[in-house]
UniProtKB/TrEMBL annotation:
Domain Aminotransferase class V stretches: 9-394
Catalysed reactions listed for this entry: (sulfur carrier)-H + L-cysteine = (sulfur carrier)-SH + L-alanine
Lineage top rank: taxon: Bacteria
InterPro entries xrefs: Aminotrans_V_dom (IPR000192), Aminotrans_V_PyrdxlP_BS (IPR020578), Cysteine_dSase (IPR016454), PyrdxlP-dep_Trfase (IPR015424), PyrdxlP-dep_Trfase_major (IPR015421), PyrdxlP-dep_Trfase_small (IPR015422)
Pfam families with a match to the protein in the record: Aminotran_5 (PF00266)
Protein name: cysteine desulfurase
EC code(s) of this entry: 2.8.1.7
Cofactor: pyridoxal 5'-phosphate
Family: Belongs to the class-V pyridoxal-phosphate-dependent aminotransferase family. NifS/IscS subfamily.
Keyword Transferase among UniProt keywords: yes
Molecular function GO labels: cysteine desulfurase activity; iron-sulfur cluster binding; metal ion binding
Keywords of this entry: Iron, Iron-sulfur, Metal-binding, Pyridoxal phosphate, Transferase
């Protein structure tokens, strides 16, 4: 790539640049270096920052400040939070005498790998049976099929809020109502527990856990222009006795985070996480409209340049987040196109960064349309610093690249 050539970053679904305001908060928090679990005054200063951040994130999820204590669990990543959600619920269910010896969990076929691969491992380990629910051509989970899979052995349902590869918004509220109604018919009212991975949703959609009706919800800081290495899990029932909570720790050797996640908390990162959450909450409606305009322009320009190209997923925008646009370029492999784009200064991807080095194409497009189409599909994802200029740069590069394909 030429040294002074304009560059365009269109991979926000993988990670976003840190907001300068977040960086400022983190630098301030860095001065308070003590372990937040220590009882001396230095530790108490760090604990104050930690609990203030916990309260801010709880508020952004529609919780009362008092509920933050015990219901917001800080982790090292969203992947860790998702693992805790799945394995923690199974661990809790195993302690309940009313739960069958072989419990069952239900997930969609297009979950992030941190849910999908964890579920597969759980099945291989013989800890639970797993039902994988298919999606339609828009990427929307088959809700009637999910409802039919619910039975007395079901302890957990996990369906992501916004898909990270094609941007589909899943009917979380509808699913939560089905689970809630089913749960009322069961002897043990704690199960099934409903978890949603909201990593790609928070910056554009309401994540009030009460209105969503979820029991567990995962967030990630670096998708919100916050720091990497910080995640959070909302886990309902912080005020319940330990034997009545639907989740238990899956690690040993530390009692931090209410006994659910051992390890000294990353106070600096957590402070930045809370600031990123605050900023995203305040700008959500404005950013949704702005990024949606960019997405529509991008679709228009790509179709003009390549009439055979098609959007993978919802074209109307009714079932899609504004920040993710997955496009099928017939006859052009994603590997070739991504390489050419990168050489010209445009960053995009074929799907989840977690699978960037995997030998198989992205699972979501494969589930929706088949492996051949998945091999010719590229994901563009936008965010806070994306502008119309980025679309112009992309179109210019595509014009040169597709012409040589």
């Amino acid at each position: 790539m030429e040294k002074n050539k304009k560059r365009s970053y269109l991979d926000y679904a993988a990670s976003a640049p840190v907001d300068t305001r977040v960086g400022k908060v983190m630098r301030k928090a860095e001065k308070t270096f003590a372990n937040p679990n220590s009882l001396h005054s230095f530790g108490m200063e760090a604990r104050k920052i930690l609990e203030s951040a916990r309260a801010d994130i709880a508020s952004a999820l529609g919780l009362r400040p008092d509920d933050a204590f015990g219901e917001i669990i800080f982790t090292g990543s969203a992947t860790e939070a998702n693992n805790l959600a799945l394995r923690g619920v199974l661990s809790s269910a195993a302690k309940k005498t009313r739960i069958p010896a072989k419990p069952k969990i239900i997930i969609s076929k297009v979950e992030h790998d941190s849910v999908y691969e964890t579920a597969k491992d759980i099945k291989r380990e013989g800890l639970a049976d797993v039902a994988f629910i298919p999606v339609n051509k828009n990427g929307v989970v088959d809700v009637p099929r999910l409802a039919k899979e619910l039975d007395s052995r079901t302890v957990l349902v996990s369906v992501m809020y916004v898909n990270n590869e094609v941007g589909t918004v899943e009917p979380v509220k509808e699913i939560s109502k089905i689970i809630s109604d089913f749960r009322k018919t069961q002897t043990d009212k704690l199960f099934p527990v409903f978890h949603t991975d909201a990593v790609q949703a928070f910056q554009y959609f309401d994540c009030n856990v009460g209105s969503l009706g979820v029991d567990l919800l995962t967030l990630s800081a670096h998708k919100l222009c916050g720091p990497k290495g910080v995640g959070a899990l909302f886990a309902r029932g912080g005020g319940l006795a330990d034997n009545e909570r639907p989740i238990k720790s899956v690690t040993t050797g530390g009692e931090q985070e209410f006994g659910l996640r051992g390890g000294t908390q990353n106070v600096q990162g957590i402070a930045g996480f809370a600031e990123a959450v605050r900023i995203a909450s305040a700008s959500r409606a404005k950013e949704f409209a702005r990024v949606l305009r960019i997405r529509r322009l991008m679709i228009k320009e790509i179709k003009k340049l390549c009439p055979r190209a098609e959007v993978n997923g919802d074209k109307s925008g009714k079932f899609s987040s504004p920040h993710v646009l997955n496009v099928w370029f017939p006859g052009i492999t994603s590997d070739f196109l991504l390489m050419k784009l990168d050489m010209e200064g445009v960053a995009a991807s074929s799907g989840s960064a977690c699978r960037a080095h995997a030998p198989t194409p992205p699972r979501t497009v494969t589930e929706m349309f088949g492996i051949e189409r998945a091999k010719e599909s590229v994901r563009f994802s936008m965010g806070k610093y994306t502008t119309h200029e980025d679309v112009k740069i992309l179109v210019k590069v595509l014009k040169r690249t597709i012409g040589r394909a």
